[in-house]
Design goal:
Structural class of chain B: mainly alpha
Largest sheet of chain A: 2 strands, antiparallel
Shape of chain B: globular
Oligomer: heterodimer
Order of helices and strands of chain A: HHEEHHHHHHHHHHHHHHHHH
Strand order of the largest sheet of chain A: 1-2
Shape of chain A: globular
Radius of gyration of chain A: 21 Å
Helix content of chain B: over 70%
Largest interface: A-B, 35 and 36 residues
Strand content of chain B: under 5%
Distance between the termini of chain A: 37 Å
Order of helices and strands of chain B: HHEEHHHHHHHHHHHHHHHHHH
Structural class of chain A: mainly alpha
Strand content of chain A: under 5%
Strand order of the largest sheet of chain B: 1-2
Helix content of chain A: over 70%
Largest sheet of chain B: 2 strands, antiparallel
Number of helices of chain A: 19
Chain lengths: 492, 498
């Protein structure tokens, strides 16, 4: 007889709320008159994310003692709650970006339903505390995202993106699953802490099966975090997917994957840290190199941002590789401005796309800053933030990451990060250059017709992202306090 | 009134936000920005009144915790010498904003907001007493400068900004690594609490950043383009004020906090500075246009100031501070004059200029006066500054003093060549009857700068006796700025007994 484990429903409340919102949005999309569908589904989805954000915040406040929520499968602690807040916040901004989609009359219930469900999946994924829930969470949100990428089905790019993501993503999942199986085979355990315990107890450190499993698990998570060399899908999928979906993926998926990577490596494989710190550092360096150098030559802004997101995975993996509490704090802090900047930047691209009715390359950004000053200034701030300039939280993100690397005795990794930042300046400033320094008349691009649509929801989302980006610079203390509490639950 | 420093930083920043948020009409924007910059000068004069020049230590100090994690804070305050650099900043910025208001700039809300933001950032650099705040302000200067050059610059502005930003950031990011390494090894980023370090790598991280920003030879690749493509008032700010942030950084951080590496690297840095001094002077002598002369003379002058700083003695420090203020005022005035000449003749090329003195007495007088001070004629403030620098460096080796003295002769050559090419000789092809004399508004902008120079010429001790307290500059740098530094240059530098 298997005992039913006691379930801590409060720990699962963000997931449950988002699932509920997904169902309601889906039903609304099916049964309401066409005119109401969009407002209804978007509102339900937004409310779901707000409620999930509130629930995560409450969970953060109430989870000072880390404990397991459902047997050893689901964890309830402040690290989980922090990650859920980032996911829910990203989702909320993504709804704002999505609202004025051109295709917004068709499949609108499905779109918002899947968005909420993907958010729920990520919230579940970050609370994983054994390899089985980890895989389940991963598949849960991945399947939602596969469909979301392909939802503009009559556009070849979108379909291609969905298919590519499905194939490469499934491969990544399979690698992760196989790795998990090897780890299970070596240790006989699935729970993170139990794996560490068994490794210790049976002196398995360095065991070939375990190390192979660890490598495959890292690779599997690397696919989701779009770290090089597991990044091949990223530029195509980011370019082809509907821009609001790209915005959500680039922020929330990456945040979730990196937090889980951090927890898994630190809790389950403390004895192998000689190996995985080096492996993660190498992946970080490769991501920085590939992301930055490839971004240099991109003309398409979405593609450029995709490579930029690869390089940011590299920056955040530096924090993971540091393998100390400062590194964990650095990662969690970095996620906040990064998620905001990423969604904000894609939102601005989405606004330009809707205005011109075609894909946006650097030439098509020319003059945009003066034509629509609010979005222009916001994009300016996001680009400076990506490049780690002060007056944006991106600066303190990089500052903490480099400090963590230095603190871990890896000054060379800090220097690699510094060099990568320098390279990245060129392409981030190229966007600013196009927006503000080249008159649009020079290139003769006209908007698709008439004045640009007001897009209040998109502007609100951009404003929110801007507030977080700039606010996380001036208000370092409260965010770093949250990150400190979150990081404190990890056994360093 | 300890909050005066904070007011000096945030008054212009607040003004910038006001201009960006409230849609004032075109004329109002410029007047409001000019008014704010004049109020800023008034606040600075109040600060001078509040400042006790006899007292050692930080004054007008304010501290507010920013993050207790890794311990950095908003910590600002002023020393005597930083007070003068802040004064230079607010005066030059007011003149530049005045010039821009007169000349007229497109998109005025963005333009004046950025100028005000730049003012706040530069003042923050000179008053930051927390290393991270210093870095933030140092970087924050770059953002408005980038846009000011990139949007309102000349035809080659895009290339110029790319070069400028990449060069500067290459230095700055190494400085970020140095800041982190220094802060973590000291356990705090507070410049008052943190002690000295003997790490050569950290020292070099800072030095490279300051070398690029100053710039020192051979880190000056960005200089000619940026100074030529920027609008004249921005070029004036860039060479007059922003370059001083680097010299200030040498003094406040590289020399004060790293006494041993500073001594070890004294000769290499002096070699670079002297090379820049001679090279800059020679190129200035061969430069084909007004801006080229001013730009490369700026390179030369920054070399001279660095020589003064790395003399590590009272005369050197005093002379360097005086020369920073002198050069700031001279450079800003010359760039504004260059702007005036370009407006009239449509070019700054010497080949097409000449004979402008005839019928244009005000222009001729202003250019002559500034030029004569720039070439350090005895009795001028620049002479006082350069004399002190040479007297200081003479104690470190007569060779440096000889190079310095030789470069001053070169300065006379390039300045006189510029004056004669613009004002005298045969009337140039671009100088027509329509090229009028300086307008009263332009005179109103330039006269205060020249007046400041004349006052300093009459009374250079106004700065040299009021930059460091009575114990002497070298001792103050070692004890106050370096948190009781010992070893390195502090152990042998002639330190006056209190």
């Amino acid at each position: 007889v298997i005992d039913t484990p006691s379930v801590n429903w409060f720990a699962l409340s963000p997931e449950l709320i988002l699932l509920g919102a997904a169902s309601v949005a889906l039903l609304g999309g099916a049964f309401l008159p066409a005119a109401w569908r969009r407002v209804f589904a978007a509102a339900v989805c937004a409310l779901g994310f707000v409620a999930a954000l509130v629930a995560s915040a409450l969970l953060f406040a109430e989870s000072e003692d880390a404990r397991n929520a459902v047997a050893d499968a689901v964890r309830r602690d402040q690290l989980v709650a922090f990650a859920k807040m980032v996911v829910a916040g990203s989702g909320l901004l993504a709804v704002g970006v999505s609202y004025n989609r051109r295709e917004s009359t068709e499949r609108v219930g499905e779109y918002y339903g899947l968005l909420a469900a993907a958010g729920g999946g990520m919230a579940f994924f970050v609370s994983a505390h054994n390899l089985m829930t980890l895989f389940l969470g991963l598949e849960w949100f991945s399947i939602c995202l596969y469909i979301l990428c392909a939802i503009e089905i009559d556009r070849a790019g979108s379909l291609e993106a969905g298919l590519k993501y499905l194939i490469v993503g499934s491969f990544g999942s399979a690698v992760l699953l196989f790795g998990s199986a090897l780890v299970y085979g070596a240790t006989g355990q699935l729970g993170f802490e139990e794996i560490a315990g068994a490794t210790d107890l049976f002196a398995l450190s360095g065991d070939a099966l375990l190390v192979a499993g660890l490598a495959m698990v890292i690779a599997g998570l690397g696919f989701k975090a779009s770290a090089a060399p597991f990044h091949m899908w990223t530029p195509d999928v980011y370019e082809g997917a509907p821009t609001p979906v790209t915005a959500f993926m680039s922020a929330a998926t990456k945040a979730a994957a990196l937090v889980v990577t951090l927890r898994l490596l630190v809790t389950a494989f403390p004895d192998e840290d000689e190996l995985w710190t080096v492996a993660v550092a190498v992946i970080a360096c490769v991501s920085l190199a590939v992301g930055n150098f490839a971004a240099l030559v991109q003309r398409d802004v979405k593609r450029m941002l995709a490579y930029s997101s690869i390089s940011h995975a590299g920056f955040m993996l530096i924090a993971v590789a540091a393998d100390n509490e400062l590194g964990a704090r650095a990662l969690l802090f970095y996620l906040v401005p990064y998620a905001a900047m990423s969604i904000g930047a894609f939102a601005v691209v989405a606004a330009r796309e809707r205005e011109l009715g075609e894909a946006v390359d650097l030439d098509r950004m020319s003059g945009f800053g003066w034509e629509r000053p609010f979005l222009g200034v916001a994009m300016f701030a996001f680009m400076l933030g990506f490049a780690g300039f002060p007056l944006t939280g991106g600066f303190f993100g990089k500052f903490y990451v480099f400090a963590a690397a230095y603190d871990a005795g890896w000054a060379w990794l800090m220097i690699v990060g510094v060099a990568a930042t320098l390279v990245s300046l060129y392409y981030y400033l190229a966007v600013i250059r196009a927006m503000f320094m080249r008159p649009s008349a020079e290139l003769q691009f006209l908007p698709a017709g008439g004045a640009p649509p007001p897009e209040r929801m998109l502007s609100a989302a951009v404003l929110g992202a801007l507030v977080v980006t700039v606010g996380s610079f001036f208000l370092v203390q409260p965010i770093i306090d949250l990150a400190r509490d979150g990081a404190a639950t990890l056994p360093f | 009134m300890d909050s005066l420093t904070t007011v000096l930083i945030f008054l212009p920043v607040g003004g910038a936000l006001l201009l960006w948020i409230v849609p004032f009409p075109r004329f109002w924007v410029g007047s409001l920005a000019l008014l704010l910059s004049l109020v800023e000068v008034g606040v600075w004069i109040t600060a001078v009144g509040e400042f006790d020049f006899g007292r050692a230590g930080l004054q007008l100090e304010q501290q507010q915790s920013w993050s207790s994690d890794l311990d950095f804070s908003y910590h600002v305050g002023l020393y005597g010498f930083s007070l003068w650099l802040v004064g230079l900043t607010v005066v030059v910025m007011a003149a530049s904003i005045g010039y821009a208001f007169w000349a007229g700039r497109d998109r005025p809300r963005a333009y004046y907001g950025l100028m005000l933001l730049l003012t706040g950032a530069v003042v923050a650099v000179f008053s930051a007493q927390d290393l991270l705040l210093f870095y933030v302000a140092f970087e924050a200067m770059l953002i408005p400068l980038y846009v000011l050059v990139g949007v309102w610059g000349g035809a080659g502005r895009l290339g110029a900004t790319v070069k400028f930003v990449i060069y500067t950031m290459a230095g700055s990011l190494l400085m970020l690594a140095a800041v982190i390494a220094y802060g973590l090894s000291q356990g705090t980023f507070d410049l008052i609490e943190a002690g000295t370090s003997s790490s050569e790598w950290i020292f070099l991280g800072f030095v490279v950043a300051f070398c690029v920003k100053a710039p020192l030879f051979p880190f000056h690749g960005w200089l000619p383009d940026a100074y030529r493509e920027a609008s004249p008032e921005v070029a004036g700010v860039l060479s007059g004020v922003v370059s001083k942030a680097a010299a200030y950084g040498f003094l406040r951080i590289a020399i004060a906090k790293f006494p041993e590496p500073a001594e070890d690297f004294q000769v290499p840095i002096l070699v670079l500075a002297a090379a820049g001094l001679v090279y800059g002077s020679l190129v200035a002598f061969r430069a084909p246009d007004v801006r080229g002369v001013v730009a490369y003379s700026s390179l030369a002058q920054m070399g001279l100031i660095t020589i003064g700083l790395f003399a590590f003695n009272d005369a050197g420090f005093d002379g360097a501070v005086l020369q920073m203020v002198n050069h700031g005022l001279i450079s800003a005035a010359l760039f504004l004059l260059a702007g005036g000449i370009e407006r009239r003749a449509g070019t700054g090329d010497f080949a097409r200029l000449g004979g402008m003195a005839r019928g244009r007495p005000v222009l001729a007088t202003m250019l002559m006066t500034t030029g004569i001070i720039a070439l350090a004629v005895p009795g001028s403030s620049a002479f006082a500054g350069e004399f002190l620098i040479l007297a200081g460096i003479y104690r470190e080796g007569w060779v440096w003093a000889v190079i310095g003295a030789g470069a001053i002769v070169l300065a006379a050559m390039y300045v006189l060549r510029m004056i004669s090419a613009v004002l005298h000789e045969r009337e140039g092809s671009s100088v027509t009857e329509e090229a009028l004399d300086l307008r009263p508004a332009e005179l109103g902008v330039l006269a205060p700068l020249v007046a400041c120079l004349l006052v300093l010429s009459a009374w250079p001790a106004g700065i040299t006796d009021h930059s460091f307290p009575e114990e002497g500059a070298a001792r103050t740098v070692a004890v106050e700025l370096g948190s009781a530094a010992s070893g390195g240059w502090t152990s042998y530098a002639p330190v006056a007994e209190p």
